[in-house]
Amino acid sequence: MVNRLWLPATLALAISACGDPSNGGNTGSNATSAEPQTTASATVTSTTTAPEPLSIDYEKFTLPNGLRVIVHEDRKAPIVSVGVWYHVGSKDEKPGRTGFAHLFEHLMFNGSENYDDEYFKPFEQAGATGMNGTTWLDRTNYFETVPSNALDMALWMESDRMGHLLGVITQEKLDEQRGVVQNEKRQGQNQPYGKVWEKLQAAIFPSGHPYSWSTIGSMEDLNAASLDDVHQWFKQYYGAANTVLVLAGDIDVATAKEKASKYFGDIPAGPPLTRKDSWIAKRDQSTRDTMYDRVAQSRLYKVFNTPNLGHADEEAISVAAAVLGDGKNSRLYQRLVYEDQIATSVNVALYEFELSSMFQVIADAKPGVELSEIESAINEELQQFLQEGPTKEELARVNMSEYAAYARDLEQVGGWSGKGVILARGELYFDNPNAYLESLTEKQQLTPDQVKVAANEWLSSGDHILEVHPFPEYKTAEASADRSKLPELGDFPSVPFPEVQTAEMPNGLKVILAERHSVPVVNMEMKFDAGYAADQGAKLGTSSYAMSMMKEGTTHLSALEIAAREEMLGARIDTDAGLDTASVSLNALTSNLDDSIDLFTDVLLNPAFSDEEIERKRSRWIAGIQQEKTKPVQMALRNIPPLLYGADHAYSIPFTGSGTEDSIASLTRDDLVNYHQTWLRPDNATLIVAGDITMPQLMEKLEKNFADWRAPQAAKPVKNLTEVALPEKSSVYLIDKPGAEQSIIIGGLLAPSEKIAEREALHMMNDILGGTFTARINMNLREDKHWAYGAYSFFTGAKGQQPLLVYAPVQTDKTSESLAELQKELRGYIGSAPAKASELQKLKDKRINELPGRFETIDAVAGALSSLVTYERPLDYMNGYADEVRNIDLQQVHELAKQTIKPDRFVWVIVGDKEKIAGGVEKLGIGNLTELDADGKPLATQVNAATSDG
């Protein structure tokens, strides 16, 4: 995947609260619960509206060259999602050339015969969003969402690399992307459990099975890839007849036919291809293996080979996976995490593919618990399920959860999971664009006995335990697209931000509403001025721990009852803490809004903070902190803030928000109650609402639920966000991670608050340096040197001074060289190589031109409002946003760069193999080199200068 936005996603995870590891563990899977819990759950069942079948209107046609085109018209925003799906993946490779499908995907972003330049440039100028490419076992896809006036440009670019690529693929480009992919592999393997997937595939599929090797391939096979391989792969698999094009959004079928024919009609169909038959490779005997990794917790994988996509039992196995391992009410969570308390997380991940599927039970053992005890409990629960089957309530709950997830996906035309993706997957795998939505309806008709029978067929034997331990005649049309230049973008549409309405309740609660009636969903966020910074003077981690405990039971409902109500209502309630704020949020279906708000209110106002639940979570939380100390990014983010802010500042805390083992071990119920009463008060809150509701309807519901909520007599607390002076000189800190495949370099410097009036100019200044894929730092370390998969600079966001962080995960033997390059980029940016007018204009065009697609979803609107509230900007800020961006001049950017960037006053934290990197880093002379342990405590005044540099 060309992961140009990898870093912000990483930081969103790393900087967020540690939370309950079990909540973050149930991803990418089907999985969930046991017997009916209480009368309260039954009440929810009786009031839940039966869901209507979901479907997407579309039209489908095929060009004479075999290209299949799916068109979905959605005029709510002047944007079009473009998806190009090739029916080829890593299963089509040959032994000795593994990883080639993914390597070729990278080459597709390196220019074409008629546009030999960085692929992202015209899309950034056009304001494209959600742009990327991915490869997996069965398919490769490329996608972007563009303003409707940029559709011709997007289709020209996609068709140019589909039909006009090989002439510009040189040995230099192949070598460049080979290096990038190998760094991507290193980066993945450098994470805890990062080598598991490759080992599992090789273990559960027989030799020669197309799923027996990983998509990213082996280093040796990547080194063996040649230009001849590139040409053969392109000619064999990248023909029009092996491709599905999906256009969703501001477009009709007549326009789609004209444009698809114009840009794609002259592209050859490609040779006839035969499809591999299903090869489930069900195993009769149990096998097991053990591996070792640098992790904090033991983990058990129990894996079965299960039916492929389209198999008669596939849907029933999907439902069984959900009942067993999705969410707090799943059978395995209740047994292992909630009751026996022997695991900190457990989930079932079902990966469904064309030839076979992989059913994985994944459990992290609580420290001190043997994996054999975990395995025994899993086996007992599985055997009970095979004997009894699921209950009707379990099926109803998991079906509503999956229905609600799809209902939310239907709001968006593109991205990673919107309507374009649903249509493309259905057509590619089933020749039916609505196949996945039809399958959703079919799952709701399954009976408990049908699920039981299928589960016994596929899950009763053959597990693997890993401890971490053809085609008709085609013809080509005459070329009709002018390929001498890119099509003109035309005039960009004006898309104003939704009108914002405000109100205030007598108790001081401020209310903000943006109506959006595109889908029957309402998003609410109760945001408090609190967050990690409120931990100053208290025990570190209090804010995050208290917020995480609010869903662990109220004075009326247990944690499991809360989770059951959410699932039956199709609602999502989240509690969260960030650096400056804490929030309780609700995403609800309009049809179940009243019951959902009742549950939201109960969680917000009546947390039980029971001693039993506090203790149940405590060991898992401490295990999470210990995991942070094994993850390179989190290791740095725990330790760099105190080095930047010094003592007695509210931000002088680990930026993961999780606290320390000692602070969490000492937390009491009184600490949590005091936090809730002190900070979560109506006069310290703003309720941000977006979606399918009017202000009168909203205020009526708020009066019902929050009229009696009163602020305490004590004045609102204030956090210490005083100004901190920069250090006189740079310093370097090293955290040893023996055997690490990469070094993580993070440099920090205090910068102005996110609240300053020049905020947009400040961010543009950084984006030129390191904030985008095509920024200077990434072009240097990734594209030119091939030392990193991605390298960036960014502001973390804060109400007080915020850190400017420079981030580069690099191969170990290039650590000192990479740090030297970063220093060179920083010095050049404020000296001999300042920002250029062309660089600024590119960013301004991107900021303005991406506006049509920026606020397509309710969640995006709510997120923008939440940011305005946090950083105290006017609620009509977005109305003048485009003009503000246009008026930023180059001199302003130069001045901000000189005021902000001080290369000789950075604090650098490096996580890597000390034995191999310390000597080279110290020779750079940037500053004193001090070794820290995982808790940030100095181990020696200075690292020995004689240490080798590998």
TrEMBL record:
Span of domain Peptidase M16 N-terminal: 68-205, 511-639
InterPro entries: Metalloenz_LuxS/M16, MPP/UQCRC_Complex, Pept_M16_N, Peptidase_M16_C
Pfam families found in the cross-reference section: Peptidase_M16, Peptidase_M16_C
Region (Disordered): 23-49
SUPFAM superfamilies: LuxS/MPP-like metallohydrolase
Residue spans of biased composition, Low complexity class: 38-49
Segments forming domain Peptidase M16 C-terminal: 226-398, 666-844
Biased composition (Polar residues): 28-37
Protein name: M16 family metallopeptidase
Species per Swiss-Prot/TrEMBL record: Microbulbifer celer
